Batch of 4 targets.
Target 1
Amino acid sequence: MKANALRDMSAEALSEKVRELKGELFNLRFRLATGQLENTMAISNVKRDIARCKTILRQRA
């Protein structure tokens, strides 16, 4: 997700997005452990998106 799109979101929406991304990261890690994950870069991409959201939330605080 692009940082510009995240900056347009409210603080509540960003917090919800972080929660959603953490759930997705959990599912990806679970699929990796069971051998069902084909694209391992998806884990890195989700981690980056979480970091982007948290950075924007921290800048606003």
Note: The longest helix spans residues 11-33.
Target 2
Amino acid sequence: MVIAYVLIKANVPSVDRIRDTVAELDGVTDAHIVAGDIDVIAKIDVDSPADVRKTVASGVLSISGVEGTQTHMAME
């Protein structure tokens, strides 16, 4: 099991739609709008680091209005 947190920079007028779309992706267990430099934080719980990459690259980054991401894998 691999847990990762994806910090998402989004087009602000679309942030609610982006959060909802991210929350529906396979492996995403939580997605929240946050204040600050980042607009959405998503928690991913998948089987492997390759699955994290697939979720971010093929899922999150394909959503219209997503401007960029940073991914941090938990080390516990």
Note: The chain has one domain: 2-73.
Target 3
Amino acid sequence: MRHIKLIVNNDLKNEKEKFFVKKELKCILDLYAKMVSNGTWKDYSFSSGSKEISFDVYQRASDQPVLRILKNLKPSYYNEKFLIKDKNGNILKKSENLNQLIDKTNWNNLRLVK
């Protein structure tokens, strides 16, 4: 018989914080569907690191995402939990609440730099 490991005290709270929770993901994917129907966005991907999780938006099949919606896992300030960055890494908007960040951003006037 092979060796079987038993994992006790699995901390599910820490696992949930390592990705977008269901409400956050629904909010982001609703925005994505709206922008795809406008013809502005074409593709998306997820990327993760030790300090952040990001939803990357592509305008075409290119190497770099044109926009990134980030969840900062270790924010320095309370209002830096969610960020919107451009392809150069500049912070366009930041907030402590993802719903407010997405609702208050005028996505049609936000320029995608080519």
Note: The chain has one domain: 16-104.
Target 4
Amino acid sequence: MIRTQVSLDKTEYDLAKKQAAALGISVAEFIRRAVRERLPVKGEGPWMKYAGFVTTGDPHSSQSIDDIVYGSKD
């Protein structure tokens, strides 16, 4: 890992610190995740960064993905 220094104004730092605490992570990890989110995904389409982002709450939803994506057949 390469160490770098980033300057934030007080408001940015306070907001980042609050969000990091809410997620249970360090400010450094919060910033790493924010940077990762903006970087292109290597070797995959840009849509891949959203894979797993939406959940249905149904543990068997992968078995009926067409119904979820396109709606159930009438």
Note: Helices lie at 10-23, 27-38, 65-70.
